[in-house]
Amino acid sequence: MLLHQFLDDSARRLPGKVALVCRDERYTYEDIDARANVLAHALRQRGVQRGDRVVLFLDNSLEMVVGVFAALRVGAVFVPVNPLTKRDKLAYLLGDMRASAMVTQASLAPVWDGALALNATVHTCFVTTGDRPLLSASGISRKLVPYPDNSGLSPAGISNATIDQDLAALIYTSGSTGDAKGVMLTHLNMVSAAESVSSYLGLRESDVVACVLPLAFDYGLYQVLMAFKVGATIVLEDSFAFPQKVMQTVAQERVTVFPGVPTIFAIVMGMKNLDALDLSALRMITNTAAALPEDHIARLRARFPQATLFSMYGLTECKRVTFLPPEQLDIRPTSVGRGMPNEEVWLVDEAGRRLPNGSTGELVIRGSHVMRGYWEKPAETAQRLRPGPIPGEMVLYSGDIFRTDAEGWLYFVARKDDIIKSRGEKVSPREVESAICSLEGVSMAAVIGVPDELLGEAVKAFVVLEDGFSLRERDVIRHCLGRLESFMAPKHVEFVTELPVTDTGKIRKASLRRRDTTTTTSSEG
Predict the structure, then answer these.
(1) How far apart are CA 451 and CA 389, in angstroms?
(2) Contact criterion met (CB below 8 Å) for 264 and 288
(3) Distance between CA atoms of residues 378 and 177, nearest Å
(4) Separation CA 428–CA 338 (nearest Å)
(5) Beta pairing partners, 403
(6) How far apart are CA 333 and CA 320, in angstroms?
(7) Between 20 and 30 A from 250 (CA), which of 224, 227, 336, 475?
């Protein structure tokens, strides 16, 4: 199966069913199918061919969803780019992938206009104008084309010679340690991932899935792909910037599946009037991107007792790796589970040797969902893809440290680069953060290592408090000393009103490290 066949099949089976709810509008599978055909024909008429890269630089929107399937239908590679991306980074991305075409919106013209002026490969830029004029300040008007309307709906699809080994998408990583890298994903990679994840989640045709995550983030993107695979309905929001409005929509649309990340769930748990909303239709909550603290898991389950909670772990390089069956939450709440269907995972030591259960080491992933590599970056690819058990096979080295218990259940320890070495001991930031979050009044916490002449590195915690709570530095330290080994307790605690996060909800620890790491602050002032 090819990725765009998810839409093909659902449009054939369920033409009149609502596939997408977005900005107070409803679109059926037949609508999405027809619109994807229109844009696909327009792309082909502008010379977009099999293997060309088509950038989707859009907010979460109808056009973003349509753009994914239109690009695939002409055999092209879709590249979702976050609409918060700045001009210079967009220019870098366009040049790095040698994009042929872009689909964007007029409101983002201050970014794409300058970026396209610096680019020689993009020959066509489809722009959704709304009520804005289609203008360019940098002389690139010849590249600009109005987004096709539906007056010329094409009844026929487009034939192409795509096979499942062809690239379907390039998804660029954040590039926190250098220039962003394009993760190359084939149709086989993405179909395999969607098949596995949707099967263990038990997604249904009757589900209504809320998506508040950017579609440029694979966690958000796959909500659409998996919903279209099973014929479910997606309720697409721009973001979670207005949580009260989003949760009202969740209630009104009778949402059954709510995917999120820890920062989103921390906000949800802090909402005072949530009980006034009827959220009884919610049957499933999923979390990935970062592990939920144990206390937050308990609070989520208490708030939504009717919903099953899936703790998961994944990487852009393979979409998803592990999931914890909900019935295991009471037994091992801090575990992220085991490998998902049609996948093999194991831990290795620093020499690459497999480790038995009860060990700590780097997680390795084997399966048809593992990326082809990083776009035109052979050295970086060789660091992550290494020979597997079958001659000629490559497996993914995650760069993440896990431990297993005696039964083989996996527990995230840290990114390799995040491990703190204090007093000669290795400290897992995740473990310290979980301990801090179990303290009443703490909303979120992030832990890093800071230089220390005596310790090598000292543990420093950044803590966000819930409204109405006041804690002191010594309260946090004393709490940690009662739950952790002494070398793991933070030496410094800084109380902050918010943590720097990416648009996908991950905490930017690099930003925290750039702060003054010698000054500590407490709520005592």
Answers:
(1) 41
(2) no
(3) 17
(4) 20
(5) 360, 411
(6) 19
(7) 336
Q: Yes or no: say if 53 and 98 are a contact pair by the CB < 8 Å rule.
A: yes
Q: What share of the chain is helix, strand, coil (3-state, %, to 5)?
A: 30, 25, 40
Distance in angstroms (rounded) separating the CA atoms of residues 340 and 338: 6
- Residues 369 and 185: their CA atoms lie apart, in Å, by 8
pLDDT in tens, the chain (525 residues): 899 999 999 999 999 999 999 999 999 999 999 999 999 999 999 999 999 999 999 999 999 999 999 999 999 999 999 998 899 889 999 999 999 999 999 999 999 999 999 999 999 999 997 766 676 667 788 889 999 987 656 556 787 899 999 999 999 986 444 578 999 999 999 999 999 999 999 999 999 999 999 999 899 999 999 999 999 999 999 988 899 999 999 999 999 999 998 888 988 988 888 989 999 999 999 998 777 888 888 889 999 999 999 999 999 999 999 999 999 999 999 899 999 999 999 999 999 999 999 999 999 999 999 999 999 999 999 999 999 999 999 999 999 999 999 999 999 988 777 778 776 677 878 788 888 988 999 988 999 888 877 777 889 999 999 888 999 999 999 999 888 878 789 999 999 998 988 766 678 887 887 765 444 333 333
Write a three-state SS string for 270-300: HCCCHHHCCCCCCCEEEECCCCCCHHHHHHH
pTM equals 0.85
Sign, CA dihedral 382-502-338-341, equals negative
Q: Which residue has the tokens 């487009």?
A: 158
Residue bearing tokens 């320890």: 413
Q: 410 has which bridge partners?
A: 337, 404
